[in-house]
């Protein structure tokens, strides 16, 4: 039944892509995309907890049939990624110009994601992977939300192609060693040396890390996301990001590195160090952004890095023979990405609401929370709370589990692994603290801030979508004792443990044992309204006494709430100053005068934070490519005699090789 629904899903998206190519019937295309997402969610739910049956697709690659199977962990990530995607496809891009291109790109990206989650051979997987990247680029280019959308998109594709080449080399090495392109045979690598296995593991980290935003690849996130709309960000930070993580965890756990304890431990240490550094940097840069899309894109890379850090911890625990703790870390990564997809989808759609009301994506005072529906405000609040790891939301649950996992590092055998886990805990604590401040900023200034301009409220369809996603975040957290059961078969088949059962004790969530620590979001939603009785009583009592109001002191100036309000820049300036060695902030002031130099007409102030890898890694690489291109530009001279000479030289070389 699950495979039948998946067939309907892909068919709906294919038809949507064909209709989009006609440039007409946009409502029908949106409906087909959304219905495909809904049937995909149903297929994922039916595939849990046992997974779908393996099938052979009615086509072949390299003379071999293509097998397809949706595993339980794949169904988990696929289903939660599609939940915000369904609403995003129904709403579609807020930009009318280029909408057919966006719809076609969304269909291609979703079809590619299905292949990444289910295809079981190397050739088919690489095709699906490239299709997913192509769809994302097409979505961004078709919206034309920036003056030069081509450069950020090419930068994104360039870095993603580095990852694609790394994946191609890794799969080819595994195929040569195992004499098959089937993933089922990639674990049979007994004849491969440890250095080669380690090299393959590093290639896999580079390949999937390019799309997950591990350093240095996260630098394509802000420019690419800021070229598109919020709904494009929903797909790229939801189902696409989940698909990339699924590929990474499947390859590292099930393929070559899984069969050597030393290799698993070494790759786990490298992965957790890389991921924690990525999480810290992306959280710091997210805090400084003044554009909704750029802030949320950095946050997506940060949350993906947290999930990857848990995958690194799983590899370390497995290498040390602690399957119970390895499965705990792995489960935490799946829980974290599920909550992230829902919450991030809600805020990306909120960003489109800000754009519809103000005409831009800037984090400025809008007063939209007061002017829009209560459902919109509640959904945006729950989503922001989850990404800030505030109870009782899903982000709080997964990050609590994350800390409980790294705290178990004292159970490891070697000093190096114990030290890595301790330092990872410290780095993740810094990340969570900065993320908390980030979402106080984006929600407090971007939605709560009072504005002198009367912006229109968020439209009912968009507000309803944000509300549904916010309530879904809370439902995931409150129902966590029951949701965990959906992964019991997955964790048992991967690690041979019953971790899903041991992660809760009734309604209490526990890290394998109730004697270490526990929380209960399910009980919190019952207790918190009861605790609210106390402040309500205080409000009632205070009504009997006169309340004295005093004017705010504005430093001797006239009262002007708009001029005295906190902006996104002033809110984040203290941290920018403290971490100036990371940010290396830049400030420029330009004076504009009308004819006479001494009479300034306008002051233009611009500020930014300097990227780390752009000037020192990517810019030199670009200069090297242009230098090589200049050396070979004679090949495009257009002179016929020059081309005939090259052909003659080539014939001489072939003749020489044939004779000698």
Percent of sequence in beta strands: 5-15%
Mean of residue pLDDT values: 89
How big is the Rg? 27 Å
Q: From the helix content, strand content and strand pairing, which structural class follows?
A: mainly alpha
Task: Describe the SSE topology.
Layout: H1 2-21, H2 26-47, E1 55-61, E2 64-68, H3 72-91, H4 99-118, H5 122-143, H6 150-178, H7 194-212, H8 220-225, H9 230-237, H10 239-254, H11 261-287, H12 292-319, H13 323-358, H14 368-371, H15 374-387, H16 394-406, H17 415-448, H18 460-478, H19 480-483, H20 488-495, H21 499-502, E3 504-505, E4 508-509, H22 521-531, H23 533-542, H24 561-564, H25 568-578, H26 580-583, E5 585-593, E6 600-609, H27 613-632, H28 640-659
Antiparallel strand pairs: 1-2, 3-4, 5-6
Helix pairs in contact: 1-2, 1-4, 2-3, 2-4, 3-4, 3-9, 3-10, 3-13, 3-18, 4-5, 4-10, 5-6, 6-7, 7-10, 7-11, 9-10, 9-13, 10-12, 11-12, 11-17, 12-13, 12-17, 13-15, 13-16, 13-18, 15-17, 15-18, 16-18
């Amino acid at each position: 039944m699950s495979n039948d629904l998946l067939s309907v899903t892909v068919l709906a998206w294919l038809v949507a892509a064909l209709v989009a190519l006609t440039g007409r019937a946009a409502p029908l295309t949106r409906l087909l995309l959304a219905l495909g997402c809904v049937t995909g969610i149903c297929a994922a739910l039916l595939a849990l907890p046992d997974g779908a049956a393996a099938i052979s697709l009615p086509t072949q690659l390299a003379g071999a049939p293509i097998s397809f199977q949706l595993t339980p962990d794949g169904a988990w990530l696929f289903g939660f990624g599609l939940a915000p995607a369904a609403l995003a496809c129904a709403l579609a891009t807020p930009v009318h110009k280029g909408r057919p291109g966006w719809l076609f790109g969304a269909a291609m990206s979703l079809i590619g994601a299905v292949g990444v989650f289910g295809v079981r051979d190397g050739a088919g997987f690489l095709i699906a992977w490239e299709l997913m990247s192509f769809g994302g680029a097409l979505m961004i280019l078709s919206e034309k939300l920036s003056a030069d959308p081509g450069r950020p998109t090419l930068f994104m594709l360039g870095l993603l192609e580095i990852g694609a080449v790394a994946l191609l080399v890794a799969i080819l090495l595994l195929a040569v060693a195992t004499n098959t392109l089937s993933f089922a045979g990639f674990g049979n690598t007994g004849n491969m040396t440890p250095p080669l296995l380690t090299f393959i593991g590093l290639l896999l980290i580079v390949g999937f890390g390019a799309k997950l935003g591990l350093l240095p690849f996260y630098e394509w996130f802000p420019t690419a996301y800021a070229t598109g709309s919020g709904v494009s960000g929903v797909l790229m930070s939801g189902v696409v990001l989940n698909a990339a993580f699924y590929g990474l965890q499947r390859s590292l756990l099930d393929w070559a590195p899984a069969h050597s304890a030393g290799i698993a431990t070494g790759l786990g240490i490298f992965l957790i160090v890389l991921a924690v550094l990525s999480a810290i940097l992306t959280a710091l840069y997210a805090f400084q952004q003044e554009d909704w899309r750029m802030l949320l894109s950095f946050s997506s890379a940060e949350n993906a890095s947290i999930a990857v850090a848990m995958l690194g911890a799983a590899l370390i625990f497995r290498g040390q023979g602690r399957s119970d703790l390895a499965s705990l870390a792995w489960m935490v990564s799946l829980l974290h990405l599920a909550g992230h997809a829902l919450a991030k989808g809600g805020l990306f759609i909120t960003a489109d609401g800000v754009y519809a009301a103000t005409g831009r994506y800037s984090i400025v005072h809008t007063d939209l929370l007061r002017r829009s529906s209560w459902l919109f405000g509640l959904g945006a609040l729950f989503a922001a709370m989850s990404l800030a790891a505030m109870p009782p939301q899903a982000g709080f649950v997964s990050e609590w589990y994350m800390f409980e996992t790294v705290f178990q590092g004292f159970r490891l055998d070697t000093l190096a692994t114990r030290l890595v886990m301790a330092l990872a805990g410290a780095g993740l604590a810094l990340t969570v603290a900065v993320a908390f401040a980030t979402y106080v900023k984006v929600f407090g200034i971007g939605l709560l801030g009072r504005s002198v301009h009367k912006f229109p409220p968020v439209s009912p369809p968009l507000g309803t979508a944000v509300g549904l996603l916010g309530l879904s975040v809370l439902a995931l957290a409150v129902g966590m004792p029951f949701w965990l059961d959906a992964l019991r078969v997955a964790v048992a088949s991967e690690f041979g443990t019953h971790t899903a059962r041991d992660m809760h004790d009734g309604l209490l969530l526990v890290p394998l044992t109730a004697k270490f620590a526990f929380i209960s979001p399910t009980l919190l939603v019952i207790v918190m309204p009861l605790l609210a009785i106390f402040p309500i009583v205080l409000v009632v009592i205070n009504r009997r006494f006169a309340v004295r109001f005093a004017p705010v002191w504005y430093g001797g100036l006239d009262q002007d709430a708009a001029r005295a309000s906190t902006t996104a820049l002033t809110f984040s300036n203290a941290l920018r100053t403290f971490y100036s060695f990371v940010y290396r902030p830049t400030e420029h002031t330009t004076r504009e005068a009308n004819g006479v130099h001494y009479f300034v007409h306008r002051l233009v102030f611009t500020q930014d934070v300097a990227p780390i890898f752009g000037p020192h890694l990517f810019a030199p690489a670009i200069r090297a490519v242009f230098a090589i291109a200049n050396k070979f530009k004679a090949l495009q001279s257009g002179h016929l005699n020059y081309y005939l000479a090259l052909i003659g030289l080539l014939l001489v070389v072939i003749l020489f090789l044939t004779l000698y």
